[in-house]
Amino acid sequence: MIEVTVIGAGLAGSECAWQLAQRGIHVHLREMKPQKATPAHVTPYFAELCCSNSLRSDQLENAVGLLKEELRRLDSLILRCADAKRVPAGGALAVDRHGFAQMVTDAIRSHPNITVEEGEVTEIPAGEVVIASGPLTSDALAEQIAALTGQADGLHFYDAAAPLVAFDSVDMSSAYFASRYDRGTPDYINCPMDKEQYTAFWQALTTAQEAEVHGFDDGGVFEGCMPVEVMARRGEDTLRFGPLKPKGLPDPKTGRDPYAVVQLRKDNADGSIYNLVGFQTHLKWPEQRRVFTMIPALHDAQFLRYGVMHRNTYLDSPRLLDRYYRLKADPRIAFAGQMTGVEGYVESCASGFLVGVETARRLLGEVPADFPQTTAIGALGLYVSNETVAAFQPMNINFGIIPPLDHRVKGKRNKNAEISARSLAVIDQMRDAVLGDVTAHT
Predict the structure, then answer these.
(1) Which pLDDT score, from 0 to 100, does residue 395 have?
(2) Into which CATH architecture does domain 161-310 fall?
(3) Which three-class secondary structure state does DSSP give residue 58?
(4) What global pTM score does this model have?
(5) Which end of the chain has fewer CB atoms surrounding its CB within 10 Å, N or C?
(6) If 0-12 CB within 10 Å is exposed, 13-18 middle and 19+ buried, where does residue 271 land?
């Protein structure tokens, strides 16, 4: 019997374990929850979304939309569960967080080729191993990884989560449902602010007291999860061109775009919980209540969870990993998820997918699938392992790491759509070979 130990049952670990198991590999899945939790997780389920319920754009003109569609066509467990538990969110794929995580957990626990062992992993085991322990890896395992990779000090950045509010506490007389430019269905609650309200809010935000996070400074924040107060300090209008952008969201009372708009997005299928879009923060909790209730529609908001911030760790992957996310110095060990420097839930899932597929093919004596750079899955792995990348930092999937078209296309959206069409054509050509592993070994 061929066995692989997968450490961590987040999105990357769950996807990796599933792909291995589907190909006849026995998986020993190690997960420290519920015996030990991280600062960002609250449920006992696998694949828990702790920062947002949104898996971002579902449009093929967006690189993450392409990445999701590639994974769908290749039978990703995470995308299957996400689509089954999606909640309305305009052009984005958002999910009922608990329903999604429970569905993933049930699928993993019921698979005949997966054995789950609960409890903290403090040493890297012998044999074939995939480390998908995430950016909040426990100290004991992090020390083992640091010793293994020679990164004694480790690399890190800081990640932040947005607050959640109860829907019935939002003043809908001061807010309205709409999606930007009327794309999709009107699923976002929009909380408008006039210039006077916004200026007072901005001033309060820039001077509010922050919670102490050991070693934190503004320069150590990943741009994709920039705390709202850090963004505000960059200039009075920064938020109005970022998460509070009013363009395309006319207030039905006036017929005009407001001066600024705070958007709320559903956090569960029932629509009883909403999160403040783009409001990742590490302000002290009383300060969050004081400042965020200055938003007119949230003056009596019931906060179900305040924003939190934590340190994330990741590897210097271009120096350490190959295109299959394997450790160059010890190929029996692979990594998956945010620890590799892929940023975002979908990207983590994609890395776990690739590791699962390629590890299974290697152990079964088959040639690698070798997803090319013209696919989003392949481009991500090739970027993470690209030794020419000098100052490596976590990054979301983007069209900049996918080869350009060999001809000119007018308009950015049209160009991106054509790149996506090219990528999906390659995926369709590979599909039978990649999924043939599943039918042959299940």
Answers:
(1) 77
(2) Beta Barrel (2.40)
(3) coil
(4) 0.73
(5) N
(6) middle
